[in-house]
Every structure is written in structure tokens, then in C-alpha cells.
Amino acid sequence: MIEIIFSDSACGSLKMAQKSAEEQNRLEWENSVPLSGNTKDVFGFHLMLSVGDIANDDFIGGRQNR
Fold this sequence. Notes:
The chain is mainly α. It has two helices and no strands. The chain starts with 7 loop residues before the first helix and ends with a helix.
């Protein structure tokens, strides 16, 4: 993404803020704790809940019509 700034002061401030955010992300990544578990314990329960219209009162019917 390109950021276009029309002020030198604002440009410098944005650059400093981005560098600070990058440093914060790096520190969070370094201090993160890996999740425990086993891939054999993961099960996908596919209900296709992301498909269909959810705006109507007939929630299930709107998804079944899809």
C-alpha cells in the first residue's frame, strides 16, 4: 500500500509510527508462546455456515436455498 502525505511533519510522524508498529510486532512474535496440541486432534465440522442469506428471519431456510 502506498501512503500519500502532503506534509513533511505528518510524513515523518507516519514513518516513525510504522517503524514503532513493526518493532512491536517483532517483539510480540519473539515473545509468543507456541500452542500445544496434536494435529490428529483437529477435526473439521463442515456445516457450510458461511453460505446463504442470513438477513431473513428464516435463517436455516435461507441457507438451504443456496
